[in-house]
Amino acid sequence: MKKINFFILYFILVNIILAKENFILPIVFYSPELGFAGGIIFKNLDKKETMLISNKISSFLTTNQYKSLNYNYNIKYFNNSRFNINLNYKDWLYDYYLNRKIIDDYNQKIIQIEINYNQKIIKKIYFKYGYNFSKIKINNNNFYLEKENINSSGINFALNYENILIEKNMKNGEKLEITTNIYNKKLLSDQDYIKNTFDYRKYFNIKNNQIRAQIMIKDINGEVPFYLKYDLGSNTLIRGFTENKYLGNTFIGGQIEFEKNFNKRFTGVLFYGTGDTNDNFDNIDILNLKSAIGLGIKYIISEDFKVRMDMGFASDGDKNMYINFSDAI
Hints:
There is one protein chain. This protein has one domain (8-324): membrane protein fhac: a member of the omp85/tpsb transporter family (Porin, Beta Barrel), CATH 2.40.160. The protein is globular and about 55 Å long. By secondary structure, it is mostly beta strands. The protein is built from no helices and 19 strands. Keywords: Membrane. It is found in: Membrane.
């Protein structure tokens, strides 16, 4: 049985100029659970007369057969509209928890496709709509894993308020996004359910350093397998808790980060997160939320492409390390 508690990570930076619009950056890391791993991150930027087109790829493969691949295609029109396609594949081993105790592990393979268009309505107000598809395959013969294969297909709508200025890779301002995802059998989804999300973020700078804050509330209306429920721990929110240990149809949480700039490439991060998840909001005690603290380091490649490593320590004694290629908030 494998449990990912930490990574020992190092990056081999090739002799390239990272300020260029096109680059390939190899990565190498190791952990006893994953084994040795290698991969690449790639970015291509193409400026047109009316738009800015970017392609990003991140991928790695480990000797213990963990696999991850992500591709992102983004068009930013100079009228402030945006079009985005995100493709994700992951082949991973997870622990299965019952009453907060590990009783087994299982392999999960997931393919995700997200297509979104963000249209400016009026100044600082955007309307986003798109399509989401995911195909999940669970490899385990135990009955408690419920449905072992599921397709989720649905449409999403979001209303965004965004008032953010970016200077020297630092944000200043705020943004709010309210999203509804509708999954329906008529859209070729195996199950009918609706996801609602409230996400508010605030950014401000103090003497060339940055503070970020976030509040998020999420809810699922409908019955879904455990592996589609909200997770308390992740690489972007409430970092520190082990994945799949706390699951539910509702989630409420928040976090705050302080980022110290060492130079134009390297920053250090301190963060604190608190929240909880359960089957409904009535079972969440706002005065007794779970919490986690941590620290991390970030290497800035470009404004929208960063290599981040965080170590989180949860209030239940869990500790986990996370590797990502974007900001947490």
